[in-house]
Amino acid sequence: MKKILTVVLLSILFLILDNTLMPLFKVHGTYPSLIFIFALCYSIVSSPKDAVIIGVFTGALQDVYFFNGFGINMLSNMLMCVAASYIGKNIFIEKSFLPIISSFILSVVKGFIIFCVLILIKKYTDIGVIFYYGIYNLIVCIFMYRFTYKLSQKEYMKTDWKF
Questions:
Q1: Where are the alpha helices (DSSP H) in 67-128?
Q2: In this structure, how many other beta carbons lie within 10 angstroms of the beta carbon of residue 83?
Q3: Which of 36, 46, 134, 144 might form a disulfide with 107, Cβ 3.0–4.6 angstroms?
Q4: For residue range 109-152, what is the model confidence (pLDDT) as tens digits?
């Protein structure tokens, strides 16, 4: 229960910071997404089931403030978190280089998914901001991954085997 409460409260905190503080750091029309990076980092260090849950939850929180279409962030976050979870199963999660590079790639892929969906519903956006979004998320992930990895090592965050 403590694990769920911790993840939910951190997600809400990062959502609040995303919508209040991060727009102040806007470069080329984009700024990092703390909640998305937290979801990716958490997915890398957790199971695919947890990745789906956090992906849908954080996507729903982001969709509350996304005016162009509800559900786009839920779908893209879920897909990226599941991919991050499978990446995390195949690498040494103690090392931070590959998770950080993976977050950059997954951020760019999410940007393309959202861009393509918005094109389909006739909402035109600038494709150039996707690369800046990825770079910004990469920088944030350097710090976020360390925080998330240390959080996942706490006793109450570990999943016990049940036979």
A1: 72-89, 97-120
A2: 21
A3: 134
A4: 998 988 888 888 887 777 888 888 888 889 989 998 888 888 88
Angle at 30 between CA 109 and CA 63, to 5 degrees: 65
Backbone angles phi, psi at 124, to 5 degrees: -90, 135
Residue with tokens 């839920």: 74
Q: For residues 45 and 149, is the Cβ–Cβ distance under 8 A?
A: yes
Q: Please give the Cα distance from 64 to 60 (Å, whole number).
A: 7
Closest CA to 84 of 133, 42, 138, 143: 42
Q: With the C-alpha atoms ordered 13, 14, 15, 20, is the resulting torsion angle positive or negative?
A: positive
Angstrom distance (rounded) from CA 46 to CA 3: 12
Distance from C-alpha of 14 to C-alpha of 22, rounded to nearest angstrom: 10
Enter the tokens of residue 105. 């790639």
Residue-wise pLDDT tens digits, 83-118: 999 988 888 777 878 888 999 999 999 989 888 888
Nearest to 141 by CA among 71, 47, 45: 45
pTM of the shown model: 0.86
C-alpha 80: how far from chain center = 8
DSSP 119-132: HHTT----TTHHHH
